[in-house]
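We modelled the chain as a single entity of 616 amino acids. Its sequence is:
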Amino acid sequence: MTLRLNAFSSIKPNVKWATVFWLLNAVLLTAVSFRYWQWITIPAGDYRSVIYLLTAQYALFGTICLLGLALNCLLCLLPGRLFRGIGILLGFCAVAVLVVDTLVFAQYRFHLNGVVLEMLFEGRDVVDLSWYTWLVGAGMGLALLALQLLFNRLARAVRRLSTLRTPGYSLMALSILVSQGMHAWDDANYRTQIPSYTHDFPLYYPLTAKSRLVAWGLVDPSLALNKENNLQAEPEGTLHYPLHPIAYAKPAQQPNVLFILIDAWRYDDANDRVTPNVSRFAQQALRFHQHRSGGNSTEPGIFSLFYSLPDTYWLAVRNSGQRPVLMQTLADEGYQFSIHGSADLNHPPFDRTVFSHIPDLTISNSEPSPARRDRQITDAFKQFIDKRDAKKPFFGFLFYDAAHGYDLPPDAATPFKPYWERVDHIKLNNDFDPTEYHNRYRDALYYDDSLIGEVLAKLAQAGLDNNTLVVITSDHGEEFNDHKKNYWGHGSNFSDVQIHVPMFMKLPGGESGDINRRTSHFDVVPTLMQTIAGVTTPVGDYSVGRNLLQPDAPRSDDIIVGSYYNYAVVSPDQIDVVYPGGIFETFTPDLQPSKQHLLQGERLRNIIGLMSRFNK
């Protein structure tokens, strides 16, 4: 009986401590969230937006702390020291995750999500962290832990703080009412400024109430937008790809096909200084100078290249395991496959999509670093050339990763100096001089170019260079804060530095020359299907692109470009970025916010048609 009474006697002091402790954390989280403001655009004199942002962030992070308070109080029967220890741990985790999210958002403008965490913990699509980064991170962690211990002490020892609970939580409730009311009202009236801030805060899902406000007579129902004016993609339904069975006449002479990709290769770093072997190859090939990827990151970039579909179809394809029509057609025509990825082929799951049904597919390589894996896949492909069945055509795929990882082997040539000896991403900010960082990237490209030179030499040695269609390109570009908005790497915006990629195609016995019209990854599959596979099925039945070799084919300058969680419609004049829920922002090509809306009428209907054509 005494033990039971002692347990219940701890409830009141524990709850009292928790209400003050989590209120202090609500203030801390709100203060940390001001780091997002440097990337938020507020029109001059727009005080409504300021009020909304202030109330929204206190409401959001206050609600998160209310959840922490509730979880903590479920354990209120525990002894005080243990109860407070658990609270301190929960508070530390909440603030630490938010700090990490602000760092991610500063460089990429998206928040921590399942895709990012999957790449971090399971895949190789993330750069290694240096000891300096770990040291700074540890220091930040200790500082955050010290704050939690201070909050613990204040919540226990300073009685005056107890009087702040009522106004603190009342202000939280008022912030929720004001921010959600403003968002619901503006959303119902199709005012875009306040709803556009939704993606600026993590885990933020504001209230909408169009139907209710219309039913109450507070909103004019005639304001409802027609479906054709909404940039939101159709929900993933049953995939209908291709629209009709692929018909082909197997060519008498079947050329080999070889795709060579360098991960994260920007267009202006494809030249005779950075990639001399590729540049020599390009002199005998078609050179596409205005070529864009269908993604600013690996998954949508590779998807657009092999499926010739916008990334809005990715989930439907992934869920169905549908093989690209190009790969299926080549398999039906008797091609043998030699697929070699430096990074793992199951993150993203290309083993279950692009390269599904490939016999003896190597998903992961044994070498620990990107540069050594690049060496490994080069040797593996050269061995394939020696051991292949010479009576059958082959399809080869090489995907190099050293430039993406800024990785160099110990004996690598480093023609670009000075270069960063150690990559410390935590040092990157808007004032950082990217010269040495960019030079290390160029040195890694130079290394991969030397390996590609070996592959091209092997083809020539085996007498295959005149009967092999070779495509050399990339999945996406790479940014070094080119627009002075603290963007580094890729996957963060849709400007040319992240989507304009090199593209060289050498046809068997074909012509060479410069192509200056706007082309994209979507155009590669139709070109190969009609050029080497003898496919007679209309291009529109399996692709949103056009044959690269038919300059008179009707084409649009609008390109649908995918990313980790959003997509954009990119034209020469503007970039329309579409977020989950249909909220969108418009930018100029150099990432300045714009109010000009060129994507309307027939252009808009065409884009929506492309995103829905292959859904049943």
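As a brief sanity check on the tokenised model: Confidence is low (pLDDT under 50) at residues 1-5, 224-229. The chain has 18 helices and 13 strands.
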